[in-house]
Every structure is written in structure tokens, then in C-alpha cells.
Design brief:
Elements lengths: L1 H40 L50 E4 L9 E6 L4 E7 L5 H9 L3 E2 L4 E8 L3 E8 L4 E7 L2 E7 L1 H4 L3 E6 L10 H21 L5 E4 L9 H10 L4 E8 L9 E5 L10 H16 L3 E6 L5 H5 L4 E8 L3 H7 L2 H20 L1
Parallel strand pairs: 9-10, 9-11, 11-14, 12-13
Antiparallel strand pairs: 1-4, 1-8, 2-3, 3-6, 5-6, 7-8, 12-14
């Protein structure tokens, strides 16, 4: 009987152990399912690559799918369909092929062209994407989006959307859909500056100064960008290559993003080859109390002259030739960093260390402007 009692006790212990094991196994399974479900539904933010068009423009929000005024490149057989959706959505929704993963997607904000590009690495057979977008449309909040099309390049499948204005955006990749919320720059950034390297593109005729100047102003802007990238200031550049944005597009950018200031970088040229020095031009048509165009021009000249240990020629009111500065409705000034017609100053303006000093002067002026 004593043996029977001992065996019964062992059986009870084994049964209890089995019950405990079953309970723990069930709890582990439930926890695992909860974790898996969480990661399935959790929103995955796409890491965007900056380019200089964020590579580095009043808003007409109507969707003009059948407009006769479409940009030529949007008039092709690869146009993206816009589907009606009864749901009210904050986001603009771009369905992606089931084989696309978040790490294959790059978004570029080409703000000077008012375009948003969604690029997909061609690890997959991109013909699948062609077929997909011939039957699948985009939907959701289309207030900011005018139209779109897709294209196949050698190494990339790309969706391009024409926007009604200049926007920043938030994006979420979820369930093979890209959700994009467009927002005004001032809703995202407290400090906004527009830097306008003058000239650019093909230059002909008796404008040798501009021909040389387009390279100098671009190099100054690039050196300045390295410094400003380390700050909390959002900077829009009208160009960061040898493109030639129109005066209208440069002005539109400045006004559209509601910049705190516009700084145009120029060179000078004169028949008198002995003339040299730095000067600044301020917007003589737009005045605001406190810190305005005159104060900005004054800061720019002082700080650049100090940085290069140069000669100050003073401040000048804008004229009709200074259209970009004069038509801006924010504090605006042009800093003319030297005379390319002066042999000695031209040599300096082509030296990397001198470019860095000019950029540092402009940088210091911007910081002081925000202190004011």
C-alpha cells in the first residue's frame, strides 16, 4: 500500500508538471503571436535619400487629369491612373507591387520642378511593374498631386508625380502601399533659408563674367551647404549643378516656402579692371519692420568682408536688373563676392580656401540674422 501511495504521488507530480508545461507553452505561443501581429501592423518608415533637388514652387489644388496644359513629359502612354476612393484619407496612397520591399524604395523631392519621384531598385523583373501600373491606380488625398507617370530606366523603375506646389512630406510603407502626406514647409521647419547661386546653364555673348561667375557662385553654395547641413536650418537651393532655373522659378521657390530670407550669391564685373571689393544689394521694393532686406545685406557684407579680410564697397538698392531680389516678398539680398574683371581678385575667387572663407562669412551672417 505504501508503494501504491508513493506511485500515486509521483503520478500526481508528473501530471502537474505536464499541466505547467502546457500552460507555459500556451503562454509562449500567445506572446509570440502578439509580437508577430505587432510587427505586421506596425508602420515602417522608409528611409529617404536626400538629393539636391532635396537635391538638390498660390496653389491650384485641382486634379487636372485631362488638362490641355499638361507638361509635355506627362503626356505619354505611361500615365498613372487616379482612382476614386470613397474613404476620406489624409494620405496620398501609392500601391506597390507585392515584390517591392521598403529597402528597395527611395523618395526624392525635386522641389524646383515641383515633382516627387518614387524610385524602385530593379532587383526584380521591372516588366512586372509596367504591367502593374497599367491596371493599378493611385488614390487617397490628391489635393497636392496634379498627375503622374512611370518610366523604366536601365537600373531603376520610377514613378514621377507632378505637384501643385512645393511641399515637404511624411511617408509610411505598409502592406505594400506607400502612404504620403504632403505638408507645407513652414509646418515642418521653424527656420527656412533660400540660397540662390546666380547664373548657370549655357551663357553666350559678352558676359564673360557670368560664364566664370556661375562656377564660383556654385562652389560657394556647395561650401555653404556643408556648414548649414550641421544646423537646424532648412535650406532650399535654387541650383546645385550647372542648371539654369528661370528668375520666375527662383522667386516662386522663395515665396512658396515662406522663407525667412533669400540670399543670392553673385560676382561683379566692370570695364575698369582695377575695381575690386565686396558689396551687397538689398530689396528696395519690399520693407518689413525690424529685420529686413537692408539689415540682411548689411550683415552679409560685413561678415564676408571680415572673413576674407577684403574691401567693403557698401550697400546698393536693387534695380530692375536685380529681379530675383526685388520680387521676393521676404527679406532678400545679393552678396557680390568680388570682381572677376579684376585679375588679382579673379585668382582669389578661384581658390578653394578663398571660397571657404566666403562661405563662412555668409554662414556667420545667417546665424547672426537668426539671433536678431
Amino acid at each position: 500500500m505504501e508503494m501504491d501511495g508513493a506511485e500515486a504521488e509521483v503520478d500526481m507530480q508528473q501530471n502537474q508538471l505536464m499541466k505547467n508545461t502546457a500552460v507555459y507553452t500556451l503562454l509562449f505561443a500567445v506572446c509570440s503571436l502578439v509580437i508577430i501581429f505587432y510587427y505586421c501592423v506596425n508602420e515602417i518608415e522608409i528611409v529617404m535619400e536626400d538629393s539636391q533637388e532635396d537635391i538638390v514652387q498660390s496653389t491650384d489644388t485641382a486634379i487636372r487629369e485631362n488638362s490641355d496644359n499638361k507638361p509635355e513629359k506627362f503626356q505619354n502612354e505611361n500615365s498613372i491612373m487616379f482612382e476614386d476612393n470613397d474613404q476620406e484619407m489624409t494620405y496620398f496612397c501609392v500601391p506597390l507591387h507585392e515584390e517591392v520591399r521598403a529597402e528597395n524604395v527611395t523618395i526624392e523631392n525635386h522641389y524646383m520642378d515641383k515633382e516627387l519621384w518614387i524610385s524602385i531598385d530593379k532587383e526584380q523583373n521591372s516588366k512586372l511593374f509596367d504591367d502593374f501600373y497599367r491596371t493599378q491606380g493611385v488614390y487617397g488625398n490628391r489635393d497636392a498631386v496634379v498627375e503622374g507617370y512611370f518610366e523604366n530606366s536601365a537600373d531603376m523603375f520610377r514613378l514621377k508625380f507632378k505637384l501643385a506646389d512645393i511641399y515637404e512630406y511624411h511617408s509610411i510603407f505598409e502592406d505594400n502601399k506607400l502612404y504620403i502626406e504632403f505638408v507645407a514647409p513652414k509646418e515642418v521647419y521653424d527656420k527656412i533659408v533660400v540660397i540662390d547661386p546666380a547664373y548657370g546653364g549655357e551663357i553666350t555673348g559678352a558676359v564673360s563674367g557670368k560664364l566664370e561667375g556661375k562656377k564660383i557662385t556654385l562652389e560657394v553654395a556647395r561650401a555653404l551647404k556643408e556648414k548649414l547641413d550641421e544646423t537646424d536650418i532648412k535650406v532650399y537651393y535654387t541650383r546645385m549643378d550647372d542648371s539654369a532655373p528661370s528668375d520666375d522659378s527662383r522667386i516662386d521657390l522663395t515665396n512658396a516656402v515662406k522663407a525667412d530670407m533669400l540670399i543670392r550669391i553673385e560676382v561683379n564685373e566692370a570695364e575698369d579692371t582695377k575695381k575690386y571689393g565686396t558689396e551687397a544689394v538689398y530689396n528696395s521694393k519690399f520693407f518689413i519692420p525690424g529685420f529686413g532686406s537692408v539689415e540682411l545685406a548689411d550683415l552679409l557684407e560685413k561678415e564676408v568682408v571680415t572673413a576674407i579680410s577684403g574691401k567693403a564697397n557698401g550697400l546698393f538698392a536693387s534695380t530692375a536688373e536685380d529681379e530675383v531680389v526685388e520680387r521676393a516678398v521676404v527679406p532678400a539680398a545679393a552678396i557680390r563676392v568680388g570682381y572677376v574683371s579684376n585679375g588679382q581678385e579673379a585668382i582669389l575667387l578661384n581658390r578653394e580656401d578663398y571660397i571657404q572663407k566666403i562661405a563662412d562669412g555668409i554662414y556667420q551672417a545667417i546665424l547672426l540674422a537668426y539671433e536678431d
